[in-house]
Batch of 4 targets.
Target 1
Amino acid sequence: MTTRDGAMALRTEHDIVMSRQTVRKLTQELKFSLVDQTKMITAASELSRNTVVYGGGGEMRWEIVANGVRQGLRLHFEDKGPGIPDMELALTDGWTSGKGMGVGLSGSRRLVNEFEIRSEVGVGTCVSITRWK
Amino acid sequence: MKTQNTALETLLKTDRDAIVDEWVGEFKVGGGKGTGSHVVAEARSVLDGLVKGVSDGGDPARFDGQAWAPLRDALETVSAARAAQGSTSGETSRFMLAAKKPMFDRLQVTFNKDAAALAENLWWLSLLVDRAAQHTVDAYQRTREEIINRQQQELLELSTPVVKLWDGVLAVPMIGTLDSSRTQLVMETLLQRIVETGSELAIVDITGVPTVDTLVAQHLLKTVTAIRLMGADCIISGIRPQIAQTIVHLGIDLQGITTKATLADALALALKQSGYVVTRPKAA
Amino acid sequence: MDRIPILQMGRHLLVTIQVDMQDQTALQLQDDLSAKIETTGASGVLIDISALEIVDSFIGRMLASISGIARVLDATTVVVGMQPAVAITLVELGLSLEGVRTALNVERGMKMLSAARKDDDDDA
């Protein structure tokens, strides 16, 4: 039975693994294609890690959304961490160095249909991603 | 409500076969189609579901309740069968609505001395049949959508077959415009086949692709990158002179991907890379 | 925390990743492999990821690191069995995994390692 929404804490490395398993369960219940499942779980992994490692811990909230006949999965990654000072920089591809949030944020954006980020220095960050069936 | 249910229940159970016959007759008179035995069987299964719901104390106002589950199942089966046969949603609901007359007639006989009870029962049954008819329409819509989706998928798959050219060499002839969803599908199918067959070379032939712009090139590049990530390689063939010009003109960087003008050239290269030598024995 | 076992086969090291790894586990594998390459003098490392349904940027970077470290220690690394969905996702993520050699399966991977070693022996 699908729950319409839920949340889980993102504090430890173990939580990152749990977030992957949670998103896997949700995408399977919603009967996403294998590739779409993989993309969503990978995006969740990236954003969960950002929350734990750079955001000082936070939570992941999920909700099953509908747009007419279409169903989708929306995830929110929220923390009360330092916030992102230079959004543009954070969102540009940072492949080569591979350090920091680079690939995680910009890469995740390409894996989902909708991507929204709100961040304020000293307050925190919230990234919302949505994948439609 | 309880007394009404029992009265209705008895009525429906005793006269079950007669009701079914009259129902089918009513349906045919209204222009309903379908072979005799089929329609009778359908009516019977729906009536049985209805009777079960009544005897389990179902409330028509709560059609989604547990009591009406057998009825809903029967309706969905009938709907799906008719949707697959190409009936319209109107016909499907007309089938259900045709059940009213035979049941109303009997209610009138049973309650002919009690106007109030008659009115109540008629309303109760009417509500139930209407809900049932609505349910058949909903189920019908869903089935049609599923059929359409499946056909779309099949069409997509048929238009991009992955063929084995040789041991370890697969080919995909791309035909028509390369949009995002098509390239996705081709990529997924091709990668899957690469794993299944253990082929180390894939040839993507774009002879049938009218134009190549930056977007299309991007899609092709992604496909090749994915293939290489998995441990295989890819040759793009069928590059016509105009396309070659466009590629250079747009400054598209093919990032070391091997390209060949024709599928034949690509196959020759693939065989060579796989260590094969093609010889022609001397003519007699 | 689970530790990924490393098998030795002649001059090659074999690793099969079958669990959804925690970041720490991946880092531990990196350390263990580097140490083992040195102690065994292995010339080739084969990492089987055919059971991995998710490879995110952390795992990707780990694979690239292992490749790099192994090269410095004079060993070749091959990553085998990448699943199609994983490959598609990695491309979209923008991870090039440059410098990481890949093969379709263990058999091909081993052939690659033997060929690489043969080249080395010929040069010697």
Target 2
Amino acid sequence: MKVDIQLTDAGISFGGVHALRGVNLSVAEGEQICIIGPSGSGKSTLLGLMNGRLLTETGSVEVLGQDLLQLTARQMRELRCGLVWVPQDLGLVPNLRVLQNVLCGKAGRLGFLGLLRSLLLTRMSEAEEVRSLLERLGIPEKLYERTDTLSGGQQQRVAIARALFQDPVAILADEPVASVDPGRARSLLELLTGVARDEGITLVMSLHHVELAREFFPRLVGLQAGRVVFDQSADETTDRQLRELYATGEK
Amino acid sequence: MKELSRWRNWLGSRRLTLLAALVLFVVGLLVLGARLDDLKPSKGGLELAGKFLGAAFQPALGYEAADLPSTTPPFWEKVGRSLVLTLRYAVVAMSLALVGGMVFGILGSRAWWPVLNQHSPSGWVLLWVLRTVRIVVRGTATLARSVHELLWALLFLTAVGTSPLAAVLAIALPYGGTLAKVFSELLDEQDASAAGVLRSGGARSSAAFFIGVGVRTFPDLITYALYRLECAVRSSAILGFMGIPTLGYHIATAYEDGHLREIWTYLYVLLAAVIVIDQWGSLVRARLSRPRPAREAGRAEDSVAELHRKRPRSLVLRASVVTALMAVALGWMTEKQWQSSLPAERRQANFERFLHEVVPHPVRENGNDWREFGPWLKERIWPRGMVALHRTFHIGTIAILVAGCGALMAVPFAARSLAGRDALGVPGGRERVSGLRAGAGRMLRVTALVMRSIPEYILAFLLLQVFGPTVWPLVLALALHNGGILIRLGSEVVDNRPSRAGQVLVAQGGSRRSSFLGSLLPESFNRFLLLIFYRWETCIREATVLGMLGVLSLGSLIDEANTRLFYDDMILYVLMGALLVFAGDVVSDLLRLRIKRGAIGSGGRHSF
Amino acid sequence: MLAGLFAGCGDKGKENEAGNGEGATALVITAIPDEKVSDQEARFQALITYLAGQLGIRVEFSISKDYAAAVQRFANGEVHMAWFGGLTGVQARDRVEGARAIAQGSADPQFKSYFIANASTGLGRGDEFPAEAIKDLTFTFGSPSSTSGRLMPEYFIRKNTGKPTAEFFSREVQFQKSGGHVATAEAVQAGSVQVGVLNFKTYDSMVADGRLDPGKAPIIWITPDYADYNLTVHGDLDNYFGDGFIDKLQKVLVECSDQEVLKAFNREALIPASNDDFAEIEAVAKELGLMR
């Protein structure tokens, strides 16, 4: 199976403190993995290494077969067109309409003028595409609403729609359901993992809520103090392991 | 040891600030020579004040003068023309300032920089080039802004001659500088996560910046620009004191002739224009930040076209855009002649002669011997220049301290959420005189509105006639105008942050004042401080020109030099004033940064 | 760069330019606002019509908002001819090469200033300068560039007391920034200032019109004579209006006896003038530091 993301002995430190050390991780095409661990264990940092927002100081990080350290800016941009990053605060532009926020997904492919054209003079075909995406996510009627008038859960779906609109190879999501109650979190994760499975998109997510991680992801990677403590299927993961993982921090 | 730490604790930064304010106030009083006598209006002055206030209720509806030449245009035509001219200059100047401000605002911010690899040599060089550009742009913008528009007008009129272009540029330059500075700050402070997401999706830095940061900052930009337009109308009006026939010119002439009722007509017209723009700005801001829902909500089964038809649109915003564009177009196109009527060679010669005369006199006389510069400079700066500088500083400082105190006392009564029977939404029970609180609050707000809508220069001009030529009318004028501004801004701070602690205090029987002092003020103290610091440097900037009305300070030195045609002296004093404001700007920025960093829960961007 | 912006960008509006070499269309006149500005335009109407008729060209009057503006506009070339005071005339001729004083009022070579005081001070007219009596009172000059309201009074105060005015008076000295001599008279009459100095002609005409009550604001001292006021023109007007234009202009002004026309200057008649007539003024100005 083709490997999408490969970290070999990756590590990075900030201000003399090791945020990550000796990380070996391999994510195959179409796989869905969840990174869990206490606060400060390096989950966000790990995701940052995967799309080049942070560059590893040791070892190597290969994404889609390319070593991130060797890329020029242009190559990096091209590579990133196939990757989507969803931060915790979603990174939407609040005063744009939902349609426009989703259209931004193609920002990488369109170039500056193309993106402007797309946002200001949206073609019918583009609008239709966005609408059907939103329909799949359950909020088609919000197409022209201003994004900041939507509820938190609805905004998350917009962020997912934008991610999907980009037609990516892999989605990297950093605690996308952190500020959401478990019920809604569950439905969102169901949606996201379902869509990713259908489209064959590689999904790497970090979650704080361990139960959800176990429920939705076939593979769990446990991080503690910058090191990978375990990397195994969800079935194999015992409660004891989870307790130990979170022993030093709060759950 | 314990004693020391107890002192340190007591001298917390808040108390320190208050202490510093008190010290400054006292020092200022001493420096400016406070005498109770000075605050007493002269006999003639009281009479004048009485007549003037009386005239407020009977503004002139026709000429007051008896015999006028037949060629005199009808009164309302004269008023109308002057108003249109005032507005035209303001609108055209703002259009220039907006364009310049946006361009330089972007150049002066960090937000558009591409991600740079500091370790590669080319990346390192590029980083330093960008940093230099940013500093240079910001410095230039701040410098442009440090010179008051009246002084720019004086420089242009002297150097090149009278022309509409000179008037417009005199406003556009400092306003462009302010806009650039504020824009770049807004861009830098903007939440960059959207830009980060776009960039992580492969977008170029320019696209990520423009959509992710620029679009997001747009509402704040527009709101601030509309506020600046209101200020520009005031500035345009006071250009009249430089001989340009805007509203201020007619006010000055009417005063000279003793036509007090006419003064009120012009004042009312100016106030009306300013208030209309202010309300428009508030309306636009409300629509931008709290959009109204569409009349018909879209349904899930609607097609794209249907949804497009039902999409939420703001009539206010659309109408505003159209009006603004039309106003700008009209403003530019209706000016018959932008340049002065002198031929180009003449203008060039005038300008060159001005440049020649700006070189200090002894340097010029001795064949450009710059060794003469030192003694010339020393002679002017010490002691006259420094005394004037010192006085100017204190005029501005005392004014803002008085304004700040006044505003702090007034806000508990003026703020909408505190005025009225139910403070902060907590039911207050029956009032003895119903509506008294609400009425008082409203009156305070109206007074504040009028005070901040009258240009400080005009206020000072009128107060000087009543109280005589000392500094205190200037201080009073500054304090009243800025007090009005601070009351409004302070009320907004209170209104926009519903305070649970405040509600608890009121619910437990505390008075409004106690809820204000006990909870709202401490919580929003930092925001109040930011507001006061922001107005402090503006006060000093105004103080540098108010002196031109005849009271010893930098302004009077500038005016004196201008009268004697000593342009080298004039430029020197203008520069001294600019440096004072520039320094104030830098200090204010540093203090604001410290406050923001140390602030807990005072989040939210400032949009001033 | 700014020069380019101003001088170079767009030469729109070449018509109606004063002196563009193609035969200027109008002679532009201004005057120092030594009394109230709003009257000026009306007062100068008859003069403009007269000159236009006599010289066969268009003549315009343009208001200057203060003394310095009048000098600057003359220097910039925005006006061709100006009714200046002594000091402003000297300043203007100093800045513009070839500028000439061509006419002055018939009594102007013996001009004087009146020191006046509010009646409440109890002072009356004396031959000696009343130094002791007034040094602790409030005092105002006229406009800062006024010859009769500032320059010469300052000179005479220094001569009589040995001190500059600012040091001589114990209270801060004021200026009338607008309204000129009329404002001085009104301020002293109203009592907002106790002593003032102004142009003798303005005082006399205000008393004659009834605008001023000499009982409320009596004269307390009259200065020695000096030369004041003049009509000054650019030296190169001949290039724009034809040879001998300046001489013709001078002749027309001096020969005028129409009181309506002369109302502009508040004079009964005009006589020829020359730059030398004001040499004393220039010397005093330089001595007092008001000129270099």
Target 3
Amino acid sequence: MASVPTALVYVLVFASLYLEVFLLVTFIEKRKTLKREESGLLSLAGYPSVTIIVPCFNEEKTIGKTVDSLLSLNYPKDKLNITIVDDGSTDGTWKVAKSFENKNGVRLFRKENGGKHTALNYALAHANTDLVGCLDADSFVEKETLTKIVKYFEDTEVMAVTPAIKVHNPRKTIELIQNAEYNLGIFFKKMLGTIDAIQVTPGPFSIFRKKVFDDLGPYRKAHNTEDLEITFRMHESHYKIVNSHKAFVTTVAPATLKGLYKQRLRWVHGFLENSIDYKHLFLNPKYGNFGMFMLPAAIFSILSALYLVGYTVVNIGRYIADKITEIKILGVGNSFSVDLFFINTGTLTFLSLALAAIFIFMIIAGKRIAEDARRSPLDMVYFFLLYGLIVPTWLFAAVYNTIFSRRTSWR
Amino acid sequence: MHQFDKKKYLYVLAITSLIFFTAIFLSNYFGEKKMAEVRAIEEKIAIDILSSETQYALLQESSCRDVSSSILSQELNSLAEKLSYAEESFGSKDSEVLSLKRYYSLLEIKDYLLSKRIAEKCGLKPTSIIYIYSNEGDCPDCEKEGHVLTYLRETYPELRVYSFDYHIDLSAVKTLLSVYGIKGELPAIIISERVYYGFKDKEGLESLLPKKLKKKEGSTATTSETR
């Protein structure tokens, strides 16, 4: 008989495998639809008017490039409004923003600092276009990104479209890890989009029908994750959200471990808090795959990752302690056996291999969708070796903060 | 309205279960193969011992030059490692593991008696260690002692280490324990008919071994001889 902790590992591994198989089956089901979608992305029946809000706070280094990328969009200039809202920056952000003052279609606002959701709402109050969206001041769009998003609004049921987000110019190890992670995210987002289960309309270039805010109200603070909350609110009202997997946006990823930790802590904590606020959506068939698959899967993934990492750390700890004892007694340089007999052929080994194989498939599929296949696979190597070591830090902190009602900050 | 396809949830469950049971099947398949390997080694040892006993009987009247430890089974050490790994992998309560372990203990006793007879006949100093351990949590030093004995096995190929689980349900082992008057104090080590209780480090054990015992060529570990 297996011990309770080991039995729990089997249950968690089974559930993790279920989630991966679910996404894999979705991919197999939808792969032809994906190809079809890609073929007609640039031919629009019409050009609806669009407002892109650029909320910024102390982003003097990147905001110029962000606005430049918006001005370079292949979209009729008379249909595009760029609204920059300086949320009380204390650096040179306003000065950079002012340099765009006379550009066609650019509007500038400056207000006291109140948080990202207040900057967005400030601009929303002045928006009167068919579509509205946001582009964080550390993100950049490609020339055809907007067209590839607007295409999906030709379906009148679609209320919001999310883009495919990539890491801007990844070089450092920490950025390369995130590059592989974002590629995986591109795969996830597309699959979730095809089954009505997108969990977030992220800050970098998610576009909404203006009607969404007219019907549901403005952004909320929502534990510093206003983009998550508006998504939950839309699902609550059965508003359809899809993903345009070829609409690329690049974003500046945190270049330090500390920066990454803070960002992810905010995301995960925000997700947990919003999940509590919207708990009535959980396991509720009325909300389809979002309620039945996405939300339980996300919560399960957080908790199982913590448990499995804890279990693995304990086992590795035991192995290291055993090795230390051996070295203390015998010294270093003892021979070890390479007999095939000693290769672990337990059930968990085969299950881990299956999990890893599907996982690698998903990253590669994401890489291909992201048109990032030419990059050396070093990002995937770093991801596999290091990601599992750093993720538990923010997962643990986020769960702790949620249980003990601690707030997370933006910066 | 949101999409929700109940059938998909069910067939994903079926595929996941299929992968899960395939993993269990593969694990059992390889586990069986490993057990079969252990069993095959035991069979080989049994034949080796029988052959050695026969050889010994044939050589009763011959000179000691013709009798050497090489006639004894050389597979005991490798079997010990594999059995210990099987015990870790499948659990010490697994009936197959227990059965193999009992058989192994019997082979060890037979091998021990044979090597003792050869030593007596030829007036040699015994080159064997009997090690009594426990996996029941009542012997905190047994793991450390196991490392030391593994080292000695590897360093001195002629040294025969016989390890016995104190709690094994086998009358021959119980008799062996009573012959040497082993009580519950573990680990216990018997060298040259003398019982030592408690943890003994490698230098301590090496000092109890016959000086003429040869070290394996290319052995990198330090020993008392080099100090």
Target 4
Amino acid sequence: MTTPLLDIEGVTKRFGGLVANREISFQVGRGELVGVIGPNGAGKSTLFDLLTGFLAPDAGHIRLDGVSIAGLRPDEISRRGVGRTFQKLKPFGGMTVLENVMVGAFQNTADPRQARAEAERALESVGLTDRAHAHARVLSTGQRKRLEMARALATRPRLLLLDEITGGVDQRGIPGLVELVRRLHADGTALIVIEHNMRVIMGISQRVVALHLGEVIAIGPPATVTSDARVIEAYLGRAYAG
Amino acid sequence: MTAEVLLQGIVSGLLMGLVYALIAAGLSLIFGLMEIVNFAHGEFLMVAMFTSYWAWALWRLDPLVSLPLTVCLLFVLGAATYWGLIRWILDAPMLAQIFATFGLAVFLRSAAQALWGVDFLVVKSPLAEGRISVGGLFLGLPQLVASVGSLAAFAGLHWFISRTETGLALQATAQDRQAASLMGIDTQRMFALGWGIGAACVGVAGALLSMFFYVFPEVGATFSLLAYVAVALGGFGNVPGTLVAGVVVGLVEVLGGLLIAPALKYAVVFAIYLVVVLWRPQGLFGRF
Amino acid sequence: MRSRLGSVAAWVLLGAALAFPLVFTLPYPRDVMIRIFLYAMLATAWNVLAGYCGQISLGHAVFFGTGAYTSTLLLQQDWLGGWASPWVGMALGALLAALLSQIIGYPVFRLRGHYFAIATIAVGEIVQTIVINWDAVGGARGLFVPIKRPDSLANFQFHESKQTYYYIALALLVLAIGISRGIVRSRTGYYFRAIREDQDAAAALGIPVARYKQRAMAISAALTALGGTFYAQYVFFIDPESVLPLSLSILVCLVAVLGGVGTLWGPILGAAILVPLGEVTRVQFGGTGKALDLVIYGLLIMIVSVVQPGGIMALLQRGSRRS
């Protein structure tokens, strides 16, 4: 059995008296797409912050390709092949869309021309080529989400963490985003996707991890997890559980 | 260095510290409301000191007598600064915010210099004059009055903020601008009020300081830096915290001067700022 | 299209600048231009750290003073014997300034926003206070640059005419602009700007933020120090009041802010306006001239920050976009 790409074991994070993540354990294989669901406050974004170095775990192991990455800085983790988008979008507002993505592309080259070419490719794959020279701050929410993805993609990550990409996007935009994620997956990138939209999760995930109050309450194929009584109870309350 | 000199120094640092605390409280209040550092705070102090001086020079009014006048004038100055300048840069990039109040500071300082020259002016024979002896220690009466006055003003400020309806509205606006306005609080008025009160604090401090401190256009510079240090130590936006922080600054200043070198006393204060703010960025009491 | 017009304008201006002293032979106009070049250069250096990288330093005089004091002490104390040349001093000053900037940056860059700005003021004040009280480097009395005749490039001293000073100042400005331009187009420039826009997003893209901030600081400090040495060799006297004060730090910022922070031309525009403006107020208002030009500076800073924080460059770009 090959080493999983990402191995999370017993990860715990506390903020004072609040336990945001408690004993979280799961694995992500090479090229696998794992969905993460859970009501607000379940600890999903905290988990992303732990995986990408913005927070350090109080206990547990986080291993990328067998090597521990817990406690490394965000830029160090990024250079090891982990990319992410932020739930609260962070575009480089004063720079153009193309320049934004070039910042990502520069991780793999110091040559501005190569970075530019790579950035143009990334923009093409997310469908933002026609807005390449617009300033990032004038983009709509849906376009900003694509920009964040393109920027992360330009770093050529092995593992991409997407944080609620359909949030704030109108209904017409969602299928396009889903298609984009499917294509990324088909190209071989491993993905962890936080989502609230159940149909999206069902449609793209190979496995789903359900979090509630900082703990994992279910792991498995999408159909199994979303019909799990504990998951239903967590989202909708006891009245709706079987 | 005798124990007596040291004790004298500590008391004197304590007294000045209370004045620093009042100055810093105004600055902290403003920052808590809208996350803007008033780089012209020292110059507000300078204006207050000049007001007291001129009230004495022209009408023979003692600083303590003209204090209400000074406070009112500074309140107006603060509110006017909000209305004429700050209102436009509330959501501007930080660079713009820094430079707006910086520009005001430069403007006030050089206007004072252009109008009244660079001479060091002094109020002669104020009402509070001389020294009193308390248990072998000598306390200058003006300094004592100044620190008691500052403490009283500080207490008044704290009472106002935590016990009156307007004060609570001010706190609410500081914590969440949008929520406050949704509850019917006029945020623009709160901001103007905040600036007015912040300046009024400095008005009290300036009037008190003019009893025993030289008055000149550059006088605001040192005080404002000490105030920043006190605010940072106490935690930006944490008004009660500035009381302790102000006293700490006062003590460090005196002890630094006594134990290291008088010329370096401000350097010691700034060094302490750097140390604290690096070890605990939110200050001693702030919650980041 | 617009950038080609910009290049043409640049070459025309450069030509005019080169020809200027041949037309204007009196010392006064040359002196004004020299000061415009010097401030433009200092503002360009400040711009690398503050404009492109977004770290607003209000204590940059520290590096100016480092340059001035290093080269002057080298000459005075004759440490390197025969090697004591102002040019060596200039290089050494830049190196020391870069080093000092790393020492300062290490703690100070952990702070953000207002805290950072205040910390830079604090550092500036500490350094100035230390130098004032340090007799070995002249203390409050300052240092005189030993006069050497005849005029020579090797000695970096010219008493007969300001012409060579003019060309050196121009060369320094062109150097600063060249470096600035080179940075903007490179990966370093993109990384600087990303850090300015959003540090966390920058880190998530693999940028070692602290390392790049230090790099910006070092470049900015070294360039500023070059200006300090030039000043010492031009005025022949330095003291804490003239090369280390907060007012100098403010003035350098103002030049950049007025012209346009984060732009290549901004510092030049800012200097071209502020230096002559300072001259006009000084001439018009005689004794109180010093305070009055500061009054105007204060008003200008306020107006610019409220109306157009992007400075004159932003105004020009808005105008051209509309047409």
